[in-house]
Amino acid sequence: MSDTPADPMVGRLIDGRYQVRSRIARGGMATVYLATDLRLERRVAIKIMHGHLADDNTFKARFVQEARSAARLAHPNVVNVYDQGQDADMAYLVMEYLPGITLRDLLKDYGRLTSEQTMDILEAVLAGLAAAHKAGIVHRDLKPENVLLADDGRIKIGDFGLARAVNNNTATGQALLGTIAYLSPELVTRGIADARSDIYALGIMTYEMLTGEQPYVGEAPMQIAYQHANDTVPQPSARVATIPHELDELVLWATARDPEQRPRDARVMLDQLLDLDKLVRPAPPVSGQSATMVMPGGLSAAVADADTQILGGAPLAAAVAGVATAAATEPPASTTLLTNTARRRRHRGYWLFTLVLMLAALAGGTGWFFGNGPGSEVPIPALTSSSPEAATAQLSELGLEAALGTEFSGTVPAGLVSSTNPDSGTRVAKGSTVTLRVSQGPQPIVLPVLAGLTAEAATSAVTELKAGIGATDSMFDDTVETGLVISAARELDGADVSQGGDYFEGMNVNLVVSLGPVPDVSGESVEDATAILAEKELLAVTGDEVFSDSIGEGNVVRADPVNEGPVRVGDSYSLTVSRGPEPIVIPNIVGMPWNQGKQVLTDLGFKLSYNLGADAIAPLLSVASTDPVAGTAVPPKSTITLKPTNPFG
What we know:
The protein has 16 helices and 30 strands. It is α+β, with helices and mostly antiparallel strands. The chain folds into five domains: 13-283 and 300-344, Transferase(Phosphotransferase) domain 1 (Transferase(Phosphotransferase), domain 1); 374-439, 2-Layer Sandwich (Trypsin Inhibitor V, Chain A), CATH 3.30.10; 450-514, 2-Layer Sandwich (Trypsin Inhibitor V, Chain A), CATH 3.30.10.20; 526-578, Trypsin Inhibitor V, Chain A, CATH 3.30.10; 584-644, Trypsin Inhibitor V, Chain A (2-Layer Sandwich), CATH 3.30.10.20.
């Protein structure tokens, strides 16, 4: 019952070539249909962007990006893309088609996998991912929903809708892309992804395959993101004691918080897995039977975008046949057997479901089935970021009641739906009540006084409140000790929170930290002053020269910052250098009475040299000459030689 007769796409001819047969899956960005390529006479999967997204250039760019990224890859473990185009107002993507299930379906049926099964799937995924990394492509949305298990055992990676070039490490101001459960710490904190971000997601998937659980859970996406950014993924053997130590090490290596500590790309991790496989996998049975080998090549299942809901695959069939019973049984011994067993259960469930419908129709009970029975159950749609009014209307169209609740959210703007209870995708009976949790914005917090704390203490105080540290600036300050916080500001709006204040969980605080005072280099030689400032990573440049009675010639009188404002590492200081004391011009005292001339020079600070006998007959004398002569500039306290006139003519 995967396709609905009311779907207008079923039966339509797209671009004069692709005849749509039935619907396979539906996601948030596009719907996937089974179609026939009339030109080449083969079955294909065709992905068609939702009509309401057709005018959004961002979504169109992502859609085209998927085609280009996948088309650059030719590998047996990557879904092949055949064509991409536009038919009227529809953007579409044509991919190879092969019936099968996803790794998510497999985990839903069996809970967890054996170490050997995990390594089989991991080897195939790494092989395909290594080809992508070699081609310069980062997937950015690896998760079990995007790993396809064909009925014949082949394994492929699909959905390159978020793929980017390996060197495109720009952050984005939009919400984080990808699924939160598999996002690497650098994507959470900085919005930056490279090949090592794919490795982290694959490490989380490996943990989930081995244990049947994700390492981090929480009621809100921000809680899970916080754990990715701040916690260390536990060893899988802490949950399942039989998991080999070698696989523990592989998971911890792939999920290291520091990208530098992870494998640099999928090829490095694949090589390590192949070596590890020889240690972990038991020897082949003597009977000649061997574990399933992952086969290269072949067709692949088509997939929709993130959070895709399979409309005719394993989850629906398993729900009819009874997933709980299957999950309690021991998993089969190989990946292929595991896949085929789940596929058979799906077909068995399909025929049982069909039989129920036929019997109900024959008994005249069809109305009951669709009105009150199992057929009345409907999946809760994805309503995140919708207005409460729009979400209520959408639920009403499905025959569901809406109730309003509230919660804090750091990812969804206030006033929009941030989550639902039950979660989106959950099937509920018509008439059920779904609670729409409306975002109140981020959780309010109160920051403590940060000024005067060490940078480490301030960081700890902020992060304990589940806020973060944004930019950290350093500057010289004469009043605050080295290493202490001078000021703090909210990154959101720049408001000062040095003395504490209101803020929001998940937001960043910018700090300014003191480098201590700038050294005083007055009286030092230019060379010594330059070296002292260089120790503080400040640049000295020679400035003006001035006279100074207190600083010796050639030494620094003072150092001033070249630029106005706070002084930071790398700034320049101008050195004012002493020329020594300012010279004094000898006045003209020739012809003055002897004692008067002496007094003029003495008042100017000069020392005098003359025949002391002149003082005895001073009233009879006047100044005849000076040496140096009048008008000469000499240093202060210089000695002036006086010669008196001859009183006797």
